[in-house]
Design brief:
CATH topology of the largest domain: TIM Barrel
Strand content: 5-15%
Number of helices: 15
Helix content: 40-55%
Radius of gyration: 19 Å
Largest sheet: 8 strands, parallel
Oligomer: single chain
CATH class of the largest domain: Alpha Beta
Number of domains: 2
Distance between the termini: 35 Å
């Protein structure tokens, strides 16, 4: 894959939808020699085009854009209605109206048109694999593609569709699981074992992600066959991130020391810091995305404005406590330096 081969350091910024990811953050990682990413999720096509323009004003280095593949999943409308009734007290607590729990395709066609027009260097996909003709069309426009996979079966489907690379996401990752379905099995393979299975199923270049928090973690996935490591949580506390102040503070707050997977906020199974909302509503939330996301977004926004982390979606990976409020370029370079040192140390130890 041309873009991965051109990186000075094997660090990829995980795309973080919903506001945490910014053009400034992506540019900082790209300028440090890694690969910055924009998250197209939840943006309009016009907003995406604007962010791409802003990023190109900040850097001339390669970057990527991530897009959701939502399709048209079946949803239990009655279960969504019951969940809406349950959340009435949350709306009263924060003085807002619950959102309309509707489905949508996240402006799929319009965003693809923008990506074609802008000839983005790399486009990655999450929650599914686009049709082969979509990937072929992007390739014809000079754009490389990567598909997020969480199993060997998904890797085979992505390879058959013509993906140029695979983002292998372990269950340790923060935020939404990139699985092609909306299941949460609870016994998914950890990242290192998953890398081995996906590597056996496909010879495509691999980008490893999930709970990585130190250069030694980066070294481990590189030694396991990945071409690069993708990290998101480690960049959440950076000044270039637009994550809310309560979210940044919670990453290292002992009161939020645990992470868990929940459908409470979005209707899909993402990993986040355990808070009151997750505990009280997680078991009742239906598998309905983006319906539940739209239902709860007003409550989440109001909680953030009130500096109340207990009703916010505090997405974070298992290594969240190691996040530091340092410039993103410093974080990226430190991770790369630590990885080089760890690999050299291991080689020296083995040679003795």
């Amino acid at each position: 894959m041309r873009i991965l081969d051109a990186l000075d350091i094997p660090i990829v910024l995980a795309p973080m939808a919903g506001g945490a990811g910014t053009p400034r953050l992506a540019a900082a990682v790209s300028d440090a020699g890694g690969l910055g990413f924009l998250a197209a999720g939840y943006l309009t096509a016009d907003a995406l085009r604007e962010q791409i323009g802003q990023l190109r004003e900040l850097t001339d280095r390669p970057f990527g854009v991530n897009v959701f593949v939502l399709g048209d999943p079946a949803v239990d409308v009655e279960a969504v209605g019951r969940y809406r009734d349950r959340l009435g007290a949350e709306a009263l607590r924060y003085g807002v109206e619950l959102g309309d729990p509707v489905g949508d395709d996240d402006h799929w066609d319009a965003k693809l048109a923008v990506l074609h027009d802008e000839r983005v260097p790399l486009v990655s996909f999450t929650f599914g694999c686009p049709a082969a003709e979509v990937l072929a069309s992007l390739r014809a426009a000079g754009t490389e593609s990567a598909v997020t996979v969480t199993s060997a079966a998904e890797a085979r489907l992505a390879a058959a569709a013509g993906a140029d690379a695979l983002v292998v996401q372990g269950p340790e990752a923060g935020a939404h699981r990139g699985s092609f379905d909306n299941e949460h099995r609870g016994d998914d393979l950890g990242l290192l074992a998953l890398l081995r299975q996906v590597g056996a199923a496909s010879d495509l270049p691999l980008i490893a992600t999930g709970g990585l928090a130190h250069g030694r973690d980066v070294a481990a996935v590189l030694a396991a066959g990945a071409r690069a490591a993708q990290l998101g949580t480690m960049f959440l506390a950076c000044p270039e991130s637009d994550a809310s102040a309560p979210h940044k503070a919670a990453l290292t707050d002992p009161a939020f020391s645990r992470t868990a997977v929940t459908r409470a906020f979005s209707g899909r199974p993402p990993r986040g810091l355990v808070n009151r909302f997750m505990v009280e509503h997680g078991e009742a939330a239906p598998a309905a995305y983006p319906h539940v996301h739209h239902l709860t977004k007003g409550v989440r926004r109001a909680a953030a404005q009130a500096d109340d982390p207990h009703a916010m979606s505090l997405w974070a990976g298992q290594g969240h406590a190691f996040a530091v409020a340092a410039p993103a370029a410093d974080v990226a370079r430190t991770l790369a330096r630590q990885a080089r040192e760890a690999l050299a140390e291991a080689a020296e130890r083995w040679a003795r």
